[in-house]
Amino acid sequence: MYHLLKGLHEHLTRKEEFSVIIIGLDGAGKTTLLEKIKTLYNDAPGLSPDKIAPTVGQNTGTITLPSSILQFWDLGGQRGIRNIWPKYYDDCHAVAYVIDAEDRERLGEGWEVFDAVLSAPQILGVPLLLLANKQDSPLSLSVEEIRHDYEDWYQRKLESARRDTRYGQGENERMARKERIASLEVMGVSALEGTGVREAVDWLFIRVQNSRREPQKGVNM
Ligand SMILES: Nc1nc2c(ncn2[C@@H]2O[C@H](COP(=O)(O)OP(=O)(O)OP(=O)(O)O)[C@@H](O)[C@H]2O)c(=O)[nH]1
Ligand SMILES: [Mg+2]
């Protein structure tokens, strides 16, 4: 009887673990976001923004929610280290792509990189959240403006692709990408001040539960 009850208790209190990768250009604010998430959800606060240096490699952080554990992987965004991102694609349950909504000069570069993420085959079925960071700055583009900027960028890319026959996309790939863009969730956040961060974590939490990918393992808490 004891073992039966213990087994039932373990089953009922089992928490599933999900991995979320945080990617985007260098300086977008990924580490600041990760540390803010830790501060908001954990007893021990994360690093303060003045202690954060550019990431060479990865940082991780774990938060425990009522029914799940989310493990975040903040991956360095400098050009030379972006090629590590795909190594995390097979095992992640959601992707948060952070864009610096204040840095208009680098939006094009940000979209170029985002576009490669959006069409990476390993994560086509994985929830993808676009975070327009630095909303505390009066210079930042709003969520709507960010969405339009990406759509404009994408249209321009399609037009130049039509002219350049070397660049071609199969019909399936084009449809998959179209669907992904249509269903793309864009949220505004300020990693510095924490605005919108809980909403973003809630979205990720809900979407990983419904994701087609299996959780990593059960952990009894
Ligand atoms: N105003 C404002 N500044 C921010 C915000 N988030 C990050 N920053 C600043 O942007 C700069 C870069 O932040 P990081 O968190 O180091 O950026 P990162 O994306 O981790 O960069 P890499 O590690 O190089 O990939 C720092 O000066 C941050 O203080 C924000 O929400 N608002
Ligand atoms: Mg960083």
Automatic annotation (TrEMBL):
Transmembrane segments: none annotated. Mg(2+) binds at residues 31, 55. The keyword Transmembrane helix does not apply. One of its GO terms (cellular component) is Golgi apparatus. GTP binds at residues 24-31, 77, 133-136. PROSITE patterns: ARF (PS51417). One of its GO terms (biological process) is protein localization to Golgi apparatus. Belongs to the small GTPase superfamily. Arf family. PANTHER family: ADP-RIBOSYLATION FACTOR-RELATED PROTEIN 1. This is Small GTPase superfamily, Arf family protein. The gene is ARL3.
